[in-house]
Specification:
There is one protein chain. This protein is of the alpha+beta class. It contains three helices and six strands, in the order H-E-E-E-E-H-E-E-H. It has helices at 17-26, 72-85, 113-132; strands at residues 31-33, 39-42, 46-52, 57-64, 90-93, 99-106.
Length: 140
């Protein structure tokens, strides 16, 4: 195979937890299956990777405990700032008051393995950038 040939396209029918686990393992990520059987990457923090809508999308998600010293208003100010300044990740306050980040990759129509790895790395980089913007320690 020469460097000019396109990579094989991956379609929704291929994308499941087992396939994602193997993809990340082959790409030398620190990957495990959590107690629910979900793909979990360890990158200084945890990133869960979920195939959704029968593999038509891949969801990336990270969750963090909120600092109990900060009220809901402080948490909302932080996540709104992240949503305003970083457009690749979505930040939110979940039902328990903790902070989460997620992002999506559309698989419909086909993507390459490289697209998935790059999207994963981009998500991780943006979560790191969001964490760096937590100047008042809203995240515990």
């Amino acid at each position: 195979m020469t460097g000019n040939q396109p990579e094989e396209l991956i379609y929704p029918a291929h994308v499941n937890q087992k396939w994602l686990f193997q993809l990340y393992n082959d790409a030398y990520f620190d990957v495990k299956l959590d107690s629910d059987g979900d793909v979990c990457l360890r990158q200084g923090f945890q990133v869960w990777v979920f195939p959704i809508r029968e593999g038509e999308q891949i969801r990336f998600m990270s969750q963090f405990r909120a600092n109990p010293e900060h009220d809901l208003a402080d948490r909302l100010l932080y996540v709104n700032r992240i949503n305003d300044e970083l457009h690749i990740v979505r930040s939110y306050v979940d039902r328990s008051g903790d902070i989460g980040f997620d992002g999506y990759l559309v698989v419909s129509g086909g993507v390459t393995r490289r697209n998935i790895i790059f999207a994963t790395r981009t998500f991780i980089d943006h979560v790191r950038a969001a964490l760096a913007k937590d100047e008042t320690d809203v995240i515990a």
